[in-house]
Design a protein that fits this description.
Helix content is 32%, strand content 15%. By secondary structure, the chain is of the alpha+beta class. It contains 4 helices and 9 strands. A 3-stranded antiparallel beta sheet has the order 1-4-5. Strands 2-3 form a two-stranded antiparallel sheet. β6 and β7 form a beta hairpin. The longest helix has 17 residues.
Length: 154
C-alpha cells in the first residue's frame, strides 16, 4: 500500500487487493493440518498442512515442518478460498457504505445516514467515514496510509 494520502475506501480496497494478490497464486483447494506420524527431534509431534483439490491430496503436504498444531490449524484455516470469502464479504460491505454530501451536515454514509438508525426518535447522521467503514480499515491500522482519525476507540 503505497498511496500517501488515500481516502478510506481507496485504502481498504488497496489492502484487499494486496491480500488477494497473495492468495491468488497460492494452491487452492481444501487445506487441513494432520499430524505427521514420525516425531520431531526431542519427541515432539510434527504437523503439516495438506491440500485436497477434488480427489487429489498432497502426500507430503505444503508445510511439512516443525510447527505447533495451533500454527498448522491456523495456516490451514486461511486457505485461499477462505481468504477470498473474507475479501469478497468486506468488498460487499464497502460497496454498500458509500459517502454522499447532504450539504447540511457534510459527508455522510449513505447507509448509516438513511434514517433507519434512530436515537431518542431522531435519525442518527453518522459522519463519513462511518463506524462500519472505519472497522473495515481497522485490521490495517499498521499499514502505510492509515490515518489516525480512522481509528475506532474500543
Amino acid at each position: 500500500m503505497t498511496t500517501e494520502d488515500p481516502d478510506i475506501t481507496a485504502f481498504i480496497t488497496t489492502a484487499l487487493d494486496f491480500l488477494a494478490g497473495i492468495a491468488r497464486p497460492a494452491t487452492g483447494g481444501s487445506w487441513s493440518a494432520p499430524e505427521i506420524p514420525a516425531l520431531a527431534p526431542g519427541g515432539y509431534p510434527r504437523w503439516r498442512v495438506d491440500i485436497v483439490m477434488g480427489e487429489l491430496q498432497s502426500p507430503q503436504g505444503i508445510a511439512d515442518c516443525l510447527v505447533s498444531h495451533a500454527d498448522a490449524e491456523h495456516i490451514a484455516a486461511w486457505d485461499p478460498p477462505r481468504v477470498f470469502e473474507h475479501i469478497n464479504a468486506m468488498r460487499r460491505v464497502l460497496a454498500r457504505h458509500v459517502p454522499y454530501d447532504d450539504y447540511t451536515f457534510g459527508p455522510r454514509c449513505r447507509v448509516c445516514a438513511s434514517g433507519d438508525a434512530y436515537s431518542n426518535g431522531v435519525a442518527v447522521m453518522e459522519p463519513w467515514p462511518c463506524p462500519t467503514v472505519r472497522e473495515l480499515a481497522a485490521p490495517y491500522a499498521g499499514a502505510p496510509g492509515f490515518k489516525a482519525e480512522w481509528r475506532i476507540e474500543p
